[in-house]
Every structure is written in structure tokens, then in C-alpha cells.
Amino acid sequence: MLFLFAITWGAVSGWWAVACLLLGLLYAWLMYRQPVSLGNTFRNILFTIRAIAVFVLSFLLLAPLVRSVSYQPQKPLVLILQDNSESVKLFTPPKSSPRGRTLSGVSKVSPLGGDVEGVTTDLRGIKSALGDNYDVREFNFDRTFNNGLSNKFNGKQTNISTALKQLNDQFVNQNIGAIILATDGLYNQGSDPQYEARNFKTTIYTVALGDTTPKRDLFIANVNYNKTAFLGNDFEIEVLTEAYQSKGETMRLTVTEDGRQVATQNIPVNSDAFQKLVPLKLTADKKGVRKFTISIAPVKNELSTQNNTETIYVDVLDAKQMVLLVYNSINPDINVIKSGIESNKNYDVKTILSTDISTIKPADYSLIILHQFIPTGALQNFITKSKIPVWYMLGAQSDLSAFDQIQSIIKVSANSYQIQEVFAQPVAEFSAFTLSDSSKLKLASFPPLLAPFGSYTSSPANQVLFKQKIGNITTTYPLLSFADEGGHRVGILTGEGLWRWQLAEYKAYGNHHAVEELLDQSVQYLTANANRQQFRVYAAKNVFDEGENVILNAELYNDALELVNTPDVKIDLKGVTGKSYSFLFTRSGQSYQLDAGTLPVDEYTYTASTKVGNKTYTANGQLTVKALNLETRQSTANHHLLNSIAKQSGGVMVLPSQVSKLADLIKKNENIKTVVYEDKHYSDLVDIKWIFALILALLSAEWFIRKREGEI
Q1: Domains 76-212+636-673 and 321-526 share a fold
Q2: Which helix H or strand E contains 458, and what residues bound it?
Q3: Of 55-59, 99-103, 245-249, where does mean pLDDT reach its minimum?
Q4: What is the pLDDT averaged over residues 41-67?
Q5: What is the gyration radius of the CA atoms in the chain, in angstroms?
Q6: Which of 324-328, 452-456, 464-468, 706-710 shows the lowest mean pLDDT across its residues?
Q7: Distance, CA of 404 to chain centre
Q8: Residue 209 DSSP class
């Protein structure tokens, strides 16, 4: 690092320095112009010392600035990103010599040569081959982004686009010289990585792992199905089957439930690259989480049979829960709320104008949503007596004074029906239910809702999920909150404009997942204890993916139906394979929560227990941890994707046997070079401490000489 210093004057003319020098000379002349007993040598020395001291002191009064310039060289970053998913190792062919095109073409052979660990070793060798002139960083990814290289190849999912995005975020505005992406090009999460790769303004070199040669293989590529069905109804699943190098074979597809065959179909394979979407009709004849195993009978000399089987779980429900949505006038939010809640097949929403409220029976519903409508008369009496869950949604047409009178959770002080734009600010301490971090971040970035303008006060029982953020200021005003008063659950949304969130999410992500999750989780919380059980334990969902943390919640009510969490809650989980696990819930807000971590693939039953006084409560349930077979669904590597990513950035695709050539390619790339960053810093000259030391030294020297010569 190189530093340079210079004095700058800012708004002060440089001629003042000359004036300061003349002032110093004048002061020294006035002091030493009279004849003194000193010799000419000492008098000249004292004259010079005094002139310099006065010059420096007067110069400091001008408050000049010192400009320091530092030059920081930054070596080019070489970022190595390695695929650590199962598919890389699972479909590695026997060791063979590479054929076909290499540095710029697409391989048509078995390029890996049967040594995936050797590829990792070669990637590590790039750092030493490049030497000290490059800053080499190493990372690996599957569904997550991790530091360092790995030779485990045990990732259950692959998300190339997210790995590239996190790499870009981590090194934004830095001197990225090159990226080396080592993967088979197969991904089962995230978007097309080509789009994310375009955000890098640097050269990308790809290492083509896996095998592009089609082998004899029959497999289930995907299964489309609804995760819920209703007891006694038929439901349909769609199975996407594929077959390679198996022309003339007959694919035998079967579906079993608890070992009992429930569907079968024979599919003739009429080409070497065969694909067919097969619809199958099944019957939901048992309540609860049902396991269906879909399999294809293996054929002779098949590459792999691991991808011949897929397991799905369908939650068979006895009946839908009914939700009543009452609104004052037509609003685009109504359709968003209805479609978002009904995305969960467990709910059916009936919408009705407030003027037609007399035509319905409130007792038929598990939840009442009041959109800018304040209930009166029979409906309000029913809500008060039955303690049915209610979700108030305020907006420009809400009667705030009436709203303040019928509930005590939130009070809004406003003199008119003015509204203001408010953004959603997540509250970390919220514990009533779990909303995914990705959804929280999305919702916080969406356009503002319109909330009544005024002052908000919230009761201690109110749990706030989102606060109102006005401009850049986060207020204490609640935007979305929930409360439980004596077993009466209440939700309050103080703004309208959910349609804005839905449009913004679809534009940015092509789906409505965050809005649907928010509505679904809110409704699940509000309707969770409709049967007034005093002790209730439930999993965050019935089916968890392999490697996903298993989350369970527990609620305990006293005789007054008030939430309490004083006693301990224990739970035992037992899998059908015989493995057992015991846990103790932690207290979260007014209820309980358990993060059991990752559990082995199995079907579990659980029994939770707690004791209040002499009374013991128990709760039972079941959950499933299903295996992720995504990595086995594709066996043919996608080198066309890797070649496209490399070419669009000016790089090349290489085979694993050519990894050692990457160091030379990077060294020869003239665009990859050290960048020198200039950093300018201004500070006051008066802040430099050695200036005061100089002044003190000059005046001390003058005093000492005069004292020594008897002039003082």
C-alpha cells in the first residue's frame, strides 16, 4: 500500500501562507532588531526559530487540510464453485479416456473418468498453480452455499442459481477476475443459472462433471399431485416417466399403498429417448397422512434402479373448514384473500356483502374475516358468546371508532378517514406461529399497504408479526398482529392493498408463495383451537423433507381457556423402524415450540404429555420425514448449459482431465489483472500531533539558548 500526502486550501487562498511567513519574519525582526549581547550566530539562530514558530502558529489558524492518498492494490479474485450434490458421484461412469471436443465444445463421452475425488484435488491445485498474484477462494454448493471444497458429494438437492447469486452478493464491487464452476449442469431447485450468471461482469470457466452419454435407464422424472385430498373422494396424480436406450421394452408402472397395489399401467417404450406423462386415479379411503409408492419395474442392464421409485404423501382430510369473509364493498383484496386461503385445500372461503349477512349461519364457520366491516346486532352477539376466531382487516372505509369499541387489542386514534402508505417490517420476537425467513424478506420488500392515518396503541396480549414502516422510519404501530384473550383468537391487519403484494411477488418471482404462506399460516393459527382442546400438539406440517428441521408446536390452556406455559411439556417420537427420540419443548411467547433438528427418513408417531396440578394431559399425532430422491431423477449431465454459461461470459468449458489447464488460461487472460484502488482522505492539519511537538521544540530551544546566554 502506497501513501501520498499534500496540503489543500479549500476556500482559503494560498497567498495567506506568504502572509504568515512575512508575519513570522516581522515578529522575529521586532524581537531581535535591538542590539543584544548575543553574537551574530546565536541572534540569527534565535531569529530563525522565532520566525518559524510564529509562521507555523499563524498558519494553523488558517485551518488548512491535509490530503492523504493511499493506493491499495487488489489482486484478482478467482472464485471456485464446486457442485457437491449426489448426482455428480452417483452417475459417474467407469474410468475411460475422454473423446470429442474439449476446450470449447460439448463432450459426448464419459468425461469424469471415475475419479470425482481427483477432480476436487485438481481444483485445490489451482490455487498453488496461480501463485501469489491471484486471490483464490473456494466454495461448494448443493441446495445451500458453503465455504471450501468437498469430496463428499452427498447433497440431496442442487440450486446453481442461488449459489451464483450468493457468490455475487458476497464479492460485489470487488475485483473478480474469474469464476470456475464445476458441476454436471443438473439442478432441481431455483431458476435457470444462465440468467444469474449474466450478472457477473467477469469470465466464467465451467468444468463439465458427470456423463452426457445416454445409458439404458428407466426412471420417474417427476410426480404432480395435490398434497391434500378428502375422505371418500378420488384424486389424480400425474407421473412423468422417461426411458433412455430402452426402445422395445415395456415399462411397468405400479402404485402401492401400505404394500397394497392400488394402480398399475403398462407403457410401451417406442424410442431411445422416451418420455410420457401418465395420469393415474387413486382413492382417498383412509383418513390421515397416506403413503403412496410409485415404482417402475427394472429392466436388464439398467444403469440405476435408485430412480425407479418415488414416494409421495397425501393428507386425507375428513372435511373442509369453512371461512366466512364479510366485506363492505368491492375491493381487489377480496379475491387475493379468498384464493390465498383456498390454496390450502383444507379451507373453503365464502364471501358475502355485509348487507347480506342475515342470509348466513355464523355457526357453520370456523373463522370470520371482517374486511373493513364492523359487526353489529346478531353477528356481534354470536362472536362475543361463541368466541369464534375473528380477523379484522382495516382500510380507508373502516369505522375506527366502532372498531375501538368492539375490541381491546388495538386502539386507533384518528380524526378522519385519511390513509398513509406503510411498509411491512418483520418483528423477530413474534412467536405465535412460524413464517419462513424468505417470505418475511419478500413481504418486507413489497409495495406499501394503505393504513388509516393516526396513532395506534397495542395491548400487552397483542403479538405483532409486522410493524408499520413509514418511509425509512420503523414505528411501533402494528400492521399485522394476533392475540388470544381467554381462548378467543383475534387477528388484526391495519392496512389494505394485499393485491399489490400479490402482483409484486408474481412480477419478481413468478408465483404467490409468500402471500399464500402468510394467509395460510394466519388462518391456521386463528382456527387452531376451534375444538377447545386444553392441550394441543401439532407439527408445522405433516410431511418434512429429508434434511429439513422438524418443528412442532404445543399449546396449553387453563380452565378459563387462557394460554399458559408454566409446566414442562415432554414429547416422544417413535419411527416405524423402531428408533425413538425424546425432547423437551421450549417456551415461546405464551405457548411452546420444539425444533427437533433433522430426523432420519421414517414415519413417526408422537406422544406429548404435561401435568397441571393433579391433572395429566396427553396429545398424539404423526408426521413423516420423506426421502429426497431429486438427485436420482436425471442421469444425463447437461453440458450444453455449462457451455452456454461459459461462452456468454467469454470463458470456455473444460473436462475434468483438463482442470490443470485452467491456471494457464487465467494467466493468459489479459482482462484478469490487479486493480489499484485510490482512497483520498482529508483531515485538519491541526490534528497532526507532531506539529505541536515541533512548535514546543522550537520555543523550548529558543528559551534554552537565551537562558544559557544570560538574556533571560
Answers
A1: yes
A2: strand 455-458
A3: 99-103
A4: 81
A5: 37
A6: 706-710
A7: 37
A8: -
Fold designation for 217-318: Immunoglobulin-like (2.60.40)
For residue 132, give the amino acid letter. Answer: D
Out of 1.10.3210.10, 3.40.50.410, 3.40.50.720, 3.30.470.20, which CATH number does the structure's domain 76-212+636-673 have? 3.40.50.410
Q: What type of residue sits at position 21?
A: L
Superfamily of domain 535-626 in the CATH hierarchy = Macroglobulin (MG2) domain (2.60.40.1930)
Residue 532 in this model has a pLDDT that exceeds 70? no
The residue among 175, 166, 170, 181 whose CA lies nearest residue 83 is 181
Grid cell at residue 209: 462433471
Beta bridge partners of 220: 241
**Contact criterion met (CB below 8 Å) for 370 and 326:** yes
* Domain edges within the chain: 2-71+679-708, 76-212+636-673, 217-318, 321-526, 535-626
Whether residue 453 is predicted with pLDDT greater than 50 in this model: the reply is: yes
521: cell is 399460516
Burial-class residue 75 by CB neighbours within 10 Å (0-12, 13-18, 19+): middle
Strand 675-684, strand 65-74: pairing: antiparallel
What residues contact residue 125 under an 8 Å CB cut-off, 6+ apart?
659, 660
pLDDT per residue as tens digits for the range 571-614: 999 999 999 999 999 998 888 999 999 999 998 999 999 998 88
Predicted confidence (pLDDT) at residue 563 exceeds the cutoff of 70: yes
Q: Provide the grid cell at 378.
A: 346478531
Cβ within 8 Å of residue 640, ≥6 positions away:
106, 185
DSSP annotation of 340 reads H
Question: CA torsion 390→393→394→397, rounded to 10°?
Answer: -100
For 256-272, give the secondary structure using H, E and C: EECCEEEEEEEEECCCC
Which residue type is seen at 183?
T
Distances (CA, A) of 159 to 143, 165, 172, 186, 431: 5, 10, 20, 9, 30
Which H, E and C letters describe 160-179, residue by residue?
A: HHHHHHHHHHHCCCCCEEEE
Cell digits of residue 669: 487472460
Block residue for cell numbers 411452546? 592
Top CATH class, 321-526 = alpha beta
User: What value, to the nearest 5°, has the Cα angle with vertex 130 and ends 125 and 135?
Assistant: 100
Phi, psi of 520 (to 5 degrees): -65, -50
Closest by Cα among 220, 223, 226 to 290: 226
pLDDT 10s digits, 475-486: 999 999 999 876
Strand order across the 176-183 sheet? 145-147, 135-141, 77-83, 176-183, 203-208, 653-654
- Strand locations in 486-548 (E): 488-493, 535-539, 543-545
Three cell numbers written together for 685: 492539519
Instruction: Give the torsion sign (CA, 512, 518, 521, 527).
Output: negative
Q: Is the pLDDT of residue 107 over 70?
A: no
